[in-house]
Amino acid sequence: MLINLHVRNFALIEEADVDFAEGLNILTGETGAGKSLLIDAVNACLGGRIHSGCLRSGCEFAYVEMVFSLDPEKAEALQAMDISTEYDCIVISRKIYPSRSVHKINDETVTSARVRQVTSLLIDIHGQHEHQSLMKKEKHLEVLDQFGGEEMVRLRQVMSAAYTRFQKSKKELDRWGMDEESRRRELDFLQYEAEEIRNARLKESEKEELEVSFKRLSHAQRIQEALGEAYMLLAEGDSASEKISRAARELSSVTKYDTSLEELSGELMQIDDLMSSVTRELSDARDALAADPQELSRIGDRLDEIHHIESKYGGSFEEVMKALVSREARIEELTSFSEKQQLAEAEYKLARTELQQTADELSDARRAAIPPLRERLTEAIQELNFSHVDFDIRMEKLAEPASYGQDMTEFYISLNAGQEPQPLGRVASGGELSRIMLAIKAVLADKDEIPTLIFDEVDAGISGRTAQKVSEKLALIGRHRQVICITHLPQIAGMADAHYRIRKQETGGRTQTEIRRLAEEECVEELARLLGGARVTDTVYRNAREIKALAEETKKNL
């Protein structure tokens, strides 16, 4: 369950630290005090979208942190998701900057999708407009399957896996769906391309080496001229080489008179040796290089062939080799086409049969779950102060199985005597849908494995006896799960196992929201405020005490 919520610099909330209790946690406060901000902060921490005004004015960042305690089953499930559950708890946080935000689970940075995946096991928020999801048939099927419990979950998983296998086998069969003429045409074309690549006999780095040779032969005359000129300057007539040689001999002849010249003489002799070596190499290079038009033409033709193959099959030697491998693999497939087509057909038929069998099994399980769910929901809806309830669950079979089965379920209801049940989305108002959603939550409380439920203003559009019934239903859910509920009604607030007041106040010229758990007498004072509005009289206080006492007595008898 959620044991702590810490919020800092989030809209009007400068800093709030709330420790939640087991059972029914009630949050009350004046309109505009910031109750919805608390839900916004929770949603943000759970990976939801954030609005531009969530960062408190003048602050560098906003921060929301939630600490959940874990039972052994939830800890095991999270460990299977590679989430650490040390000390049997988990910490979810989000730090929000003006242009980005950072999610963390136990101090490890994660994506918002990862946060939503993890927290979907821990908390469920029933927002102000969630009841509108009952307008969609898909939600009705979800409720039925959830009521079916672990067996229904298993069948849904088997169904999803069977559908995946079926889709894969169908795709594979489509792959072998060509006729003989198309197969032969594709095979001939692939064989031609593969043979063209093989005949080219490409070698790695061959193109680069040929390009170097082509450039050298293309400029052979210019290179020979440069080599000859360099040789003439170094070796012929009064050349640089001859002058260096004479300088070396002259200096060597006087080193016996001045030993300090020995090092300089040695350097000149090294230069003389180097010049002689360079001169010989220039001569050899000049003699070796000769223009060869035939070789130049051969290299040019080979480069054209390489460029053609590479441009046609990928642009590089590596890509051409990949193209050859892929074509040879496809040639092998098309050569044994008939056998593979038969195998694909057999696998498709088997997957189709398994899919249909699983869909039928899932349909049978759903039909079996409909009567008890109809009975439980009818009773739960009646308990929420509906004088007449005629509730039905109708299931129709789809033409083809889908990943969720071959059924579509729709809730039908009549809330007035003498009227035939109609589709729920057509006849129920927003307030009625909200109460029906609460009834569904109550029925699923012992089926649902999510430990914490948040109800954001579930009291919208109700009062009096209906409000009392809603409060009892919330208290009943609180026996099985932790419930956090925002309300304006004293009948609901009186049922609180833990009561928190949200109040807006001005400090130092700035408005901020404060959240605090109330002591027993403060709970009565808050109930009196909800009852009396601006003026709280002694009579209002007595009524508040009576509501609290009656609530405690009611909870004992639930």
Summarize the structure.
With 558 residues, the protein is α/β, with parallel strands linked by helices. It has helices at 35-45, 72-80, 112-119, 137-147, 149-175, 180-200, 206-218, 220-235, 240-253, 262-288, 293-313, 317-335, 337-382, 424-427, 430-444, 464-480, 490-493, 520-532, 538-557, and strands at residues 2-10, 13-19, 24-29, 62-69, 89-96, 101-105, 108-110, 123-126, 390-402, 405-414, 422-423, 452-456, 482-486, 498-507, 510-517. A six-stranded antiparallel sheet has the order 2-1-4-5-6-7. Strands 8-12-13-3-14-15 form a six-stranded mixed sheet. The chain has a three-stranded antiparallel sheet with strand order 9-10-11.
Structure explained in plain terms:
The chain is built from 19 helices and 15 strands. The strands form 3 sheets. The protein has a 6-stranded antiparallel sheet. The chain has a 6-stranded mixed sheet with strand order 8-12-13-3-14-15. A 3-stranded antiparallel sheet has the order 9-10-11. Strand 6 (101-105) and strand 7 form a beta hairpin. It is an alpha/beta fold and 558 residues long.
